[in-house]
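A reminder before we start the practical. When you read a complex entry, don't treat the lines as separate problems. The point of joint prediction is that each chain is placed relative to the others, so the output describes one connected object in space. Small molecules and nucleic acid strands, if listed, are placed in the same frame. In the example below there are two entries. Take a minute to note the order of the lines before looking further.
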Amino acid sequence: MVETAAIRALRSMDLIPFVLENPGVSIAELAEKFSVTQEQIKSDLQLVFMCGLPGYTPYDLIDVAFEDGIVSVIDPQVLNRPRNFSSNEIVVIALGLKMLIDINQMNPTATAKLKKLSEKVAKLGGSNSILMAGDVSQVPFFEIISKAISQQRVLNLQYHSLIKDQVTNRLVLPEKLYFLNGSLYLLAMDINIDSDRVFKVELIKECEIGAPANVKKSVAAPVETTVILDIQRENQSFIERNSSIITAMEERGKSTRVHLQVSNLEWIMRAVLSNAPGITVISPESLVIEIKETAGDLLALY
Amino acid sequence: MSAQKTERLINLTLALLATKKYLTKAEIFTTVAGYTGTPETMERMFERDKDELRELGIEIEVGGLDPLFEDDLGYLIRSETFQLDVNQFENEELLYLTMSVNLWHNSALQANSKAALLKIQSLSGPIESDAVNLPVISDAENSKTLSTAFDSVEKRYALNFQYKGSERKVQPYGLYLQDGFWYLVAKEKEDIKSFKMQRIEGKLSKIGKEFAFIKPAEFDLAIFLAKSRLEKKEVAVLRVRKNQGHALRSKYSVIEIDDEWDQMEIEFGFDQEIIQTILWYGPNVLVEKPEKLRLEIKSRLQVLANG
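Here is the predicted structure of the whole assembly.
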C-alpha cells in the first residue's frame, strides 16, 4: 500500500510523545515499534524537526536530538501527549480487560480495579457493536502461574486430565500461558518425563509454587505420530479448533482430508468417538482397528 | 508522496491544536508554513488537507465568528478529541492496559494491539515487568478479513462473500468473539444471522460506499446474543462408572446405583453437544434417557463399528 502524506504526518507526530516518555530510545527500537524501516524513522524525525507553531522561530519548532542512533525530545511543543485511541484500539483494550476480569474473578481487589478501568475506557468511545459473547472461565491460580513463569520457578500441579480421565500430580516448569478457542492453556515442561506438555488451566485442581527452577529445558521434542483423518462438513469445527496441529489439508468434495501431528493417540481416539460418525481414520492402521473395536464394545453396553 | 505536503499537514495540525480561538482560512494561509500560490491554489490545498486529516479520524471543528459571513468561518482541533490526558490513568492502570493489549499481540488483531501499545507506552514509558506479557491469545483468524469486518461494522459498508457454498450479500450489524472464534452478525435479506468468520471462503469484499444502510436503532448486539442463548433445556439421565468421568463429576452430583455405576442428571440445549460429551467418555458414561439420545448414539456407533 502506498503511504499517504497524511499517514506519514500522523506517524511523525506520534513519534514525539513516545520519545518524550522513552528518552534515549534507539532508532532501531523505534523502527520496530512503528513497523517501518530505520531509514524511515530518521527521515520522519528530520521532518518533524522542521515543523512547529506559527512564528517558526527556533523557539517555536519541535526540538528533537538524535545522535549515535539514540533519540530524545527537547521541546515537544503541543505534542506532549499521545493521540487518542482509535475505536478499534479501544475494542482491543476493552475485550482484553473483559478477559482479565474473567480470569481474575477469584481476586476481588484486582477485579475491582479492572472494572473501574473498564468504565474509564468505555467513556473514551469504543463500540457496542463489537463484543465478547459469554465469559472466559475463571482461573483461580492465574497469579501463582504468572509469578512462576516470570520468576522461572517450578509448579506442583494436581491436574485432572480429560484425555486420561484421571487426576495426577505433576511437577512442571511453566513456560507460557495462552488462550486457544476461548480457554486458557499452560505450556510447561513436565520435569519427570522431561518433555513439554499442555495443560488446560481450568482443569488444574491444586497449584503450588516451588523452588527456582534448576532444570535444563528439555531439547527432546515429544514423540509425534502423523494421523490422517477424513472429516465431514458438519464436523468442520474439529478442523477449526485444531488448526495449530494440522500440517496438511485437502478438500475432497463433502469431506476434508487432514494430516495432524499428534503426541497422544488416546486424545484422537476420544475425539473420533465423540464426533462419530463424522470423522474417519485413514491412518495409522492400528488406530483404525482400535476405533472399530472400541465402538463395537461400547455398542454392546447399550 | 511529498515531504512538503507531510510537513504542511503537521504544521496545520499543530497550529489548529495550539490555537484557543478558531483560525480563519486567511489566518491559516498567512501564518501556517507551507501554504503558497494563488488564493485558489491555497484554498484547494487546504480543503484537501482538511479532508485527509478527517479521514484518519482527526476531528477538525468548524466554528463561525460571524454566522452571516462564510469567509469568517474558523477551524480548530480540540486537544481532548486529539490527545489522551496524561493524568487519565494511574500507573497500575497503565500496567493493566498494557496487559490487555498484549493479549492480542500474536492474534489477528495484532496491528491494533501494536498501535494501542505505542500510545500506552507514550504515557507510561518502558514497563519492566514480565507479567504484562502473559497470557497471549492464539488464533487462526485472517487478520485482513477481520479488519475489513471491523471497518465495515463501524462505517456501515455492505459486504459480499462466499459462505457454505453460496454467495452472500449482507449488511453488517456487529461482531462478537465466542470461545475464541469471531462471528459476524449481519442482515441477509430479511434475517439477522451469525456467520463464523473462519468459514468465509476467500475474500470479504465491501460493496459500494460507506454508510450505505441504516442499522435499526432498536438493534442491540448484547440483546441479540442473549436471545440466541435462550434455548430449551432438556434433561439427560446418564450412568457414570465409578472413579470415571471426573470432569462431569466436578460439575454435577450423582446418586449411587450399585458397586459399578452412579447415576447423573445433566441439563442440555443441543443434542449434538450432549452426544459429543457422552461419547468422549467411551464405555465409562452411558445414556439412559431420553430414548432419542440412546437411539442416536447407537446408530452413530454402528457406523464406526462397521468401519
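Discuss with your neighbour: Chain B has a mean pLDDT of 88. What might explain this?
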